[in-house]
Amino acid sequence: MAVKLDGKKLSQKIAVQLQQDVEKLKFLGVTPKLAVVLVGDDPASQVYVRNKRRMAQKIGIETSDLTLPAATSEAELLQTIAKLNQDSTVHGILVQLPLPPQINEETIIQAINPLKDVDGFHPYNMGKLFMGDPYAIPCTPNGIMQLLSEYRISLTGKKVVIVGRSKIVGRPLAALMINHNATVTVAHSYTKNLFELTRRADILVAAVGRAEMFTQTAIKSGAVVVDVGINRNDAGKLVGDVDQMKVADVASYLTPVPGGVGPMTIAMLMKQTVKFAERSVKGIGND
Ligand SMILES: Nc1nc2c(c(=O)[nH]1)N[C@@H](CN(C=O)c1ccc(C(=O)N[C@@H](CCC(=O)O)C(=O)O)cc1)CN2
Ligand SMILES: [Mg+2]
């Protein structure tokens, strides 16, 4: 039976550490501040943003909450971002994705000052990450790395298969894992004989967004399995991309859904915000 990679527990532990870091910063006269921008009323995004604000509050991070109507134009959102870029009390800027169709996501991401880009999605930060010298790391990949590290799962020399090539998960995670000496294959919707590939993985990361598509036949015995999916099954239950019941018998370690990667994403956002505030104290702009 697989060991549970408990993201909920680890995220709580990180929150306690961050509380102490924030206290120290406040003593030095700096309160970390995160601007959380939500455009529209997508119910899932509302939940994620609420959870982010809640965790920030718990840690002592101030938030500036900007909730804009679904009809907001790209120009209006760019104006909001320009103001946040200029506001020296704001250490981190987060624009919740996805954005409504009239707004180009890349245009918005590129407008964020890369030194305040807590999501690490700006091409500057993606480039730094791919060069092996990250400044800000996307939260979900960073959370996965922390979780593996917590359970002493080394990446060196391991065969990793990441299924999914999104900018939020697959691409940055591949870069991070290469930086940690793994041999990484990124699979996607055009990959042929997918399960033949996944069955060879020492570490499998499922990030496709298809409910329970990976069963025991897709997994090597003893593999570490990271489930990034958040889906609803036919019964309306929250499930991952991995059939947890079937895979738990085969894998050595497995992230649950919920309570695995999701809470780690939010914890890493908080960590990045505190790091940016610490850099402002040290006067580091671009290290
Ligand atoms: N600007 C960003 N937008 C989005 C990101 C991101 O990192 N930055 N990632 C996802 C959504 N996301 C954070 O924003 C996120 C998704 C899920 C969870 C989470 O805690 N999930 C829970 C289950 C939640 C539920 O009940 O629905 C879990 O897995 O335990 C946190 C953050 C897309 N957008
Ligand atoms: Mg993230």
Could you explain the architecture of this structure?
The structure is a single chain. The chain is α/β, with parallel strands linked by helices. The chain has two domains: 30-113, Rossmann fold, CATH 3.40.50; 139-262, NAD(P)-binding Rossmann-like Domain (Rossmann fold, 3-Layer(aba) Sandwich), CATH 3.40.50.720. It has ten helices and eleven strands. It has helices spanning 7-27, 43-59, 74-86, 105-111, 123-130, 139-150, 170-179, 194-198, 244-247, 261-282, and strands at residues 3-4, 33-39, 62-68, 92-95, 159-163, 183-187, 203-206, 224-227, 231-232, 238-239, 253-254. The strands form three sheets. A six-stranded parallel sheet has the order 1-11-8-7-5-6. Strands 3-2-4 form a three-stranded parallel sheet, with helices on both faces. Helix 7 links the parallel strand 5 (159-163) and strand 6. Helix 1 runs parallel beside helix 10, helix 2 (43-59) packs across helix 10 and helix 6 (139-150) packs across helix 10. The chain is globular and about 50 Å long. The structure holds ligand LMY7XDAE and magnesium ion. The ligand Nc1nc2c(c(=O)[nH]1)N[C@@H](CN(C=O)c1ccc(C(=O)N[C@@H](CCC(=O)O)C(=O)O)cc1)CN2 binds next to helix 2, strand 4, helix 6 and helix 10. Magnesium ion (MG) binds next to helix 6. Belongs to the tetrahydrofolate dehydrogenase/cyclohydrolase family. NADP(+) binds at residues 164-166, 230. Pathway: One-carbon metabolism; tetrahydrofolate interconversion. Its EC number is 1.5.1.5, 3.5.4.9. It holds the Pfam family THF_DHG_CYH.
